[in-house]
């Protein structure tokens, strides 16, 4: 895992555009779901899954694999798109998201979906589970790494702060959490509903190694993750500043797109925008 | 009857015993390890013990993460916190995920005593048995607690094991086989069935002795596993006796009595009464006095048996349509 070359960055951008198309397609076909948070977290997942994590879709239960807990479970269209692209399950499944009998549930289910490490959806619970996985890795004398992806609205849950204390108390330096800080929650801007600020200081005060990055910049993200993995003696929190609905102009920074599927017109427009970006080579 | 012993004391000792050979056992507690007796395990195997502090929700999630990584997690705190405070964590991170977490909850029921209603869970059986995938076990005494722990270590999926605070008498005879989901006929009888769980088994046996003096032949059934429930045994004793009394140190809503009523309503409806706490919170007091005040003694079981026998006679006396 070294610095990204120009070609690698272009590859990641291209992958992300494809995955964004998948997310739009999935949610459109499902007729419900959470596109906003899926689009904001996607670039974080892309860097982790394509450049950092040691995983093998052919043996998803390998004891030594790295683990990622998507604590903000409602963003699962992004995770499903990544897992399908990597080959954890057939891509056909994506188009049945949220349909009766489909293994891809509205929120992640570890028993139904290969590659999903923990069932989440009821917010605030994933960090505790990730802590447990980090403790297990230590008991096993294993070098495997544990990642937890938290939503910004999610960390209004008290359990997150119980888990924050635990991770630093147990010095879980094999744990890296990433905060998808898009600033929006269902009812509006976090700063209006219930502010997190000063959020970096809070995690520092809880004993974490805190890094702050642009959550859509692959080079910065990878650098922060590297620093987090090298840090000893404390867990790391990467505060990733993101844009809710990232990549689709009319979804960006709009609270309404937290949990709503695009209609036919919006669906076409979203795909057209992604096509244009592909042509222009921008993300 | 041998010396009295608290089920939580047996738990602490048995965990140490299990931990000796089973390196995949980890134990978590939320600052109550001296009371739940997990401190004994902590003393022997400090690397595999995690004191999570006063954070029950976090503890349940952490136990799930350890279990998802191949460990068998024993999680302990008082019943009121395990089943109540951390309910959503138990539901979503443990039951829904079918992980091998053993929630061993101590200090259940009225016999918590002086600490009062805030600490006396009378709802935990109801809360746990309604969860899919959850196994719910309430051992009758210390002997059965040890047997249950050995049996439950490798039982697939999540388990809620309900233990108490005080020392309780031995009721299970040496050599009695413990099998998850299999009720035990502690005493045979033809006239009425006393169906008990946990410490109420002792009282059911006492009540049966009193009833015998009155010429009433009472059966005593120990339902140590509330879920999965032994439907066959319950239906058989109901059919054999034609009258049922349930007994639990728990609310009459949602616990053993409700579970038995659900089965018998479908398989063998007979006159039935539920002995338990009548939809109320507990209060501070000496455990024995509270059990008396809230109607959970052998005397109350005798009364209920007489009453249900009157209903049975009335039913039998009813002329056919």
Fold and architecture overview:
The complex is a heterodimer of chains A (283) and B (321). Chain A is of the alpha/beta class and 283 residues long. Chain A has a single domain, classed as 3-Layer(aba) Sandwich (Rossmann fold), CATH 3.40.50.970. Chain A has helices spanning 6-30, 35-52, 76-86, 126-139, 158-169, 190-193, 199-205, 218-230, 264-280, and strands spanning 67-70, 146-151, 175-181, 184-185, 188-189, 209-214, 236-241. In chain A, the strands form 2 sheets. Chain A has a 5-stranded parallel beta sheet, with helices on both faces. In chain A, strand 6, helix 8 and strand 7 form a beta-alpha-beta unit. In chain A, helix 1 crosses helix 3, helix 2 (35-52) runs parallel beside helix 3 (76-86) and helix 2 packs across helix 8. The radius of gyration of chain A is 18 Å and the shape is globular. The model of chain A has no long low-confidence stretch (mean pLDDT 96). Chain B has 321 residues and is an alpha/beta fold. Chain B folds into 2 domains: 5-168, Thiamin diphosphate (ThDP)-binding fold, Pyr/PP domains (Rossmann fold, 3-Layer(aba) Sandwich), CATH 3.40.50.970; 184-317, Rossmann fold (3-Layer(aba) Sandwich). Helices cover 42% and strands 20% of the residues of chain B. Chain B contains 13 helices and 14 strands. Chain B has a 7-stranded mixed beta sheet, sandwiched between helices. In chain B, helix 1 runs parallel beside helix 8 (142-152), helix 9 crosses helix 13 (298-317) and helix 10 (231-241) packs across helix 11 (256-267). Chain B is globular, with a radius of gyration of 19 Å. The interface between A and B is medium-sized, with 36 and 31 residues.
